Amino acid sequence: MGDDLNGPEYQVPEELRSHITITTLDRIYNWGRRSSVWPMMFGLACCAIEMICVAASRYDFSRFGMEVMRPSPRQSDLMIVSGTVTKKMIPQIVRLYNQMPEPKYVLAMGACASGGGPFKEGYNVVSGVDKFIPVDVYVPGCPPTPQALLNGLIKLQEKIDTQSIRTVRWYKREASEPIPIPILGPDLIDPRDIPILDAKRASVVKPDVPENS
Amino acid sequence: MTLEEYTDRFTGMLNFDERKGYEGYIVHSERLVEFARTIRDELGYDYLSSVTGVDYLPDEQIEVVYHAYRSQGGPGLVFKVQVPRINPIVPSLVSIFPGADFQEREAWDLLGIRFEGHPNLRRILMWEGFHGHPLRKDWEEPYFEESEKPFNSRWPEGKAFRIEENKPFKKNVQYPPEFTPDGWIPEADTALYSGMVRLGAKDAGNGRSLETDQILVNLGPQHPSTHGVFRMVVSLDGEEIADLQPVLGYLHRNHEKIGERNTYLMNMPFTDRLDYLASMGNNFGYALAVEKLMGITPPERAEYIRVMMAELTRIVSHLFSIGTLLNDLGAFFTPMLYALTERELILDIFEAVSGSRMMCNYFRFGGVARDLPEGILEKVYELVTERLPRKVDELDTYLTDNEIVRTRSIGIGVLPREQAIEYSAAGPVLRASGVGYDVRRAESYSIYDRFDFDVAIRHNGDVYDRYLVRLEEIRQSLRILQQVVRDIPDGEFQTGKPQYQVRVPPGESYGRVENPKGELGFYIVSNGKPNPWRYHIRSPSFINLTAFGEMCKGHKIADVVAILGSIDIVLGEVDR
Amino acid sequence: MYGIGLIKGLGVTLKHFIETYLDDIRWLGRRYYRDESLAERQGPHARGIFTVQYPEEKLPVPEEFRCIPFLVYEVGEDGERLYRCTSCGICSKVCPPQCIWIVRSNDPETGRPIPSPTEFFIDIDICMNCGLCAEYCPFDAIKMDHDYELASYDRLADHIYNKERLSKPVTYYESIRPMNFAFEEAARAEKEAAKEARRKAK
Questions:
Q1: Is there a single domain that holds both residue C82 and residue C21?
Q2: Which of A163, B82, B188, B481 has the most neighbouring CB atoms within 10 Å?
Q3: DSSP assignment, residue C115?
Q4: How far apart are CA B160 and CA B153, in angstroms?
Q5: What is the ipTM of this complex?
């Protein structure tokens, strides 16, 4: 048991440190979760190659308990959005996110996943996956080097450490709402925007509607 | 017989392209199919490399450019068709060159050129129902700012803002004015599914026929063995594949639209992101295409550095490919780990030379970005003479004779020689089918004619042979590298002064290189401005996929991943 | 014989497994968290375990490594920041994804542009780390950084870097790119000397 498990507010005699640890429930709960974050085996673009390198022998994220990459969203805790998110792909990404069980985390790897990246101006590119799903950690870089990704994963572990069992979303009585899946229309349609779109159409006064600008 | 004699036969229908800086012939669309058949059957141009649509907005014309080659090697033949810009219709060449299939669909999708006689003219990179044809010059995307870079809003009064902040919905979307969301039925895949072939009733063996149900399985776009976001719809008869349709575009990042707005130099780092496993190979092709237009050649040392980097890139890419193929065959991750270890050592060299592990952005027009840092040549020497040959042998020892590898790959996904040429397959896929076509030999570029190497070739055209071809190519690359390290001269690494705004005279050029995945071509049209008018990429992975469905037919569903792994696609390049 | 191939494969794995322990014994206690052993483990003679024990030990980045540009400033006599940047705008013109915004202002008295940026922004969610800005900057004012540990929790607040965030002293630049720095300084000194000589000749 590492020192990180022992609560700083409790004094354990030196000779007993390897046998006894006094901690809070939050701490041991988070310690368990942060040491077994299973990422989804899910690659999008260039960054996915660096993600594979992180899984491979040189950077080896099994040192953080993350080596169990799950091909199924049902078994994974972390979605590493590694690469450019396109309009054609975002319905699937949202669906995968909805299928992941709580607690779930999203790490946006690289410029493209964070905010569109160099391809932001493209007609088929979503400018940041956080337009659709909540993101916990952003890792800048194009692509981030494996060590930068590891840094992001450590940041994620730090975030997990700050959560408390009393306030976390997934123990609330009401179930969390799934995110509505975007539709591929003449362009990408976010179902959450449909009321706005309808309202706009109802109140068309100007001939040059802003949707087309 | 030369082509000149044919101008008589096609009186008035076949003319030289006399625009300045252009080459080839302009064929009238009525006689296009006949012309294509003629050059294939009588002149031996049996390999259609690339089909490109170009939108000449000022002339109100759309042009389709075809690049054809002989599979024995030698220079190519360029022919073009010109049609009016409104409702352009061009006869399809799929019946003559099946390899045109996906490329014509792409031209329909992005430019709205209707290919008459195409068996399956649906959108390929965008989805069915998308509004407009994005590569048309008058089509503007939601985040459109200006038609040419650099944008004026960046300097001297640059205001930092995210472009979505003053767009409706704060998103990258725009809808046609008449569009209403509640009446919209999302595009289902019914058209795709109904077009799938199914097998007939089976003979049960006792004189009676056995009715089997057709099952449609969607593999991907999120699937661990599709090497990215690739989707295939498989029609199954039992476990056997009756039909397979690849569905692309999940990583369509609009390289070409962005590339036509960029200046020439700006496109260089974007080419890195095409085949992101072989960034310097892409740099090479693009640099060659632009240099051809500019009429410059790099100095001697730069040529050697280029070849060195391109060959190291080939090794990197093939190592990765062998690793993933073994993943797909079920040897999960162990061979990959060994392959990646060697890859990392080469990436260290890339990082030291260019500054980035994957996105090297190292080539410049007329040379390379900077000279090799001190000590790199020694490192390369150590790797290519000592470590890598040993490690490749090790890979060979534990993989090639492995019973599971052999059983799962021999005789699987066979692509016969004739079909490989017809389908415009390239690279190891073509060479494993017994066609010794390697651009480095067939139409030698840079300084490849100086090096002593063999074109790896195998004859069975199955998964196993493709693997062996890749292994052999690593060995041949090492051979080239040993010669490069031995012969590399001192001197300049760049002709002229480095400049960020290059002058490119008007004209067209097609630069092609032998990338690890196959023949990578860049078709560039310049109108003398700082930005290319047309920037098209002939990507080997994309075109190799044309034959994928054909290769899979009759095999078991588990073989699909092995066959896909042996084609070795990179989605960045497939979807661009 | 059937099975030989499988045994060969397992043999390779066994060899790697044993090599790791052999190397552990050879280096006895000095194998991790040391620069020299890291170099040995990651070099062309690497055998056995290949892992970098990040974050305790970090793989050193080469001099040319590039990740997000920064602005070089020199420290003046009074401790003020003297930016090398003259806000000529070449970096924002050459930037492929156009992620650099520069505000240049004019001198209120003369009306001429001030040769220093009033504001300088880089959107690191667009930046593709291509290094063209640093390569074509005629004043060596913008350079590519080595710091890649940039992960953050909030991009809307943090990811457009302003001048303050981008500024780094010239000593930092010297420390991350000693060879380039020396080369540029030599070129500058040569230029100065030539200028001086010309002035004297007049």
A1: no
A2: B481
A3: S
A4: 9
A5: 0.91
